[in-house]
Amino acid sequence: MQGLGLGDPQFCLVHFEAARKLLSSKLSSAVIEAWDADLLSLYRIVAECVVFNFATMLPLYRTKDLSMPWASASFDGLSSFDCLFYENDGQQSSSTSPFFGGFYRLWNLMLRSTVLHHRIVLNEVTEPIAQELIDMADSMKIELDDTEKQIHLWEVTRPRDSSLTKLYKAQHFLNLCATRIYLCKILNNTVTAQCVEVQREFAKAVGHMKLEEHPEQRSLSLRWPLTILACAASTDQDFAFLAKIMDDIASTVIHANSSMLKSARQTLTMFRQRGPDVAQLQQGISTTLDFVLEPRLLGLAPSLTS
Amino acid sequence: MKGSKSKSGCVTCLVRRKKCDEVTPVCGHCRRLTLKCVQREHDTPVPAADRTALTMTSLRAKQLHIQPPVSPGHPRFRSELEKKVSQESPALLSGFLSRIADPAFHSVQSIGRFCIQSEVVREAVLAYAAYIRGQEDADAYRHCVKSYQSCIIGLRDASIRQSPNQDLAMTAILFLGLLEVSG
């Protein structure tokens, strides 16, 4: 309570970590089938809030600044929450609709990507650890492929021309492709926006956004994936397309996310026009895609820099 | 015609003058209100020295941690604003919802129920509502800070973090976290 600074993203992580512990304790001791549907909705909201906020806020912190057990080998990717979102056969529940606007699995994968990045930075890369991290990355790639299939499968069972179907597909591909680009950069920090794999995913995401439906405004879930895609834009035309969407969303979402979107957009615009400044070069930023590993350098709120 | 008095109901219900359902080891009233259920020993004459234990005053003096009776079991609303926000709380998260979110998320009745049951949840919901609705209003911001602080104090009470109150603590913390996200 000292220096109570409302709106500090660091406090949000503290709160959601406490929520995580309470929910995990609850899930480990109770039978999910005994809950009523309304209580289950509340638990899903809590779980999605935890995973979503960790997935989108943790990249803003340097590994050494984190006191939470995210970088430790015991972190299980919040698998204790799976029972809220998956049927017994491992398939995502058809009755689980996104709260913030994304597959739960995608947020989980995005969070695990950040954990992987922190572990790579934190640990000396001895052979056993390197192999373990490679296995983690391979597992995540398989899950991303499976999630893409599920998006297509979901679409088949819905009215094709429905605006909600289009929106669902566009937003999920935005998140999916952004996560793949993020993971690609984590595994090879020399990758640039011109890399074939990055361009393939970028084209897929933007293609869906242009053909299907523009992302909905006031959606918090789009800030981080949009930022990743903006960093991966190789042409000015592509960047201008994403910058317009970022501006539209920044004008409607609430404060912290709005300022983050605006800062990211402005920093990337200046970088594209003038190249990296001395401070950015010192932090290892020489291309736009490098910001993906150091998003705090996109000019974020002072409370986040340390 | 008056009903016969129970001879085996718990002491807590006896003191509170409630009809005990005589469930052991914890009766229904005590379980619902998280009171200490003090069972009577049957057919055992109460020693004179212990007879004084059967009053609220002496129970508190003996630090048996029996909560004073409340009716109907939930804390009262302290203001009309508190009552209004609590009533509106099931739909308070709609600002975060995506158009493609399940309709069930638009009104989560559990939140309203927890607001009624717990002052800590109410404080958290009040803080969040005050912050969201009055970001340009200094009075609303002050109200938000005050509610936030009260909620944190309430959460420091270890009992709220233990079963069966974990849902209450979790709901309160959810709103505090969302308040920070909204900042």
User: How many β-strand runs of chain B?
Assistant: 0
Largest interface: A-B, 47 and 41 residues
| Distinct helical segment count of chain A | 11
Radius of gyration of chain A: 19 Å
The beta-strand count of chain A equals 0
**Helical content of chain B (DSSP H or I, runs of 4+):** 40-55%
Instruction: Note the quaternary state here.
Output: heterodimer
Structural class of chain B: mainly alpha
Number of discrete helical segments of chain B: 9
Main beta sheet of chain A: none
Rounded average pLDDT of chain B: 75
Strand content of chain A: under 5%
- Describe the sheet with the most strands of chain B: none
Helix residue percentage of chain A: 55-70%
Approximate strand percentage of chain B: under 5%
Query: First CA to last CA of chain A: what distance?
Result: 20 Å
Poorly predicted spans of chain A = 1-5, 301-306
Structural class of chain A: mainly alpha
Q: Average pLDDT value of chain A?
A: 78
Q: Tell me, what's the shape of chain A? A: globular
How is this structure best described in words?
The complex is a heterodimer of chains A (306) and B (183). The longest helix of chain A has 30 residues, at 127-156. By secondary structure, chain A is mainly alpha-helical. Chain A is 61% helix and 0% strand. Chain A is built from 11 helices and no strands. In chain B, 49% of the residues lie in helices and 0% in strands. Chain B is built from 9 helices and no strands. Chain B has helices at residues 11-16, 28-33, 48-51, 56-61, 80-88, 109-117, 119-133, 138-155, 166-182. In chain B, helix 6 (109-117) packs across helix 7 (119-133), helix 7 packs antiparallel against helix 8 (138-155) and helix 7 (119-133) packs parallel to helix 9. The longest helix of chain B has 18 residues, at 138-155. The interface between A and B is large, with 47 and 41 residues.
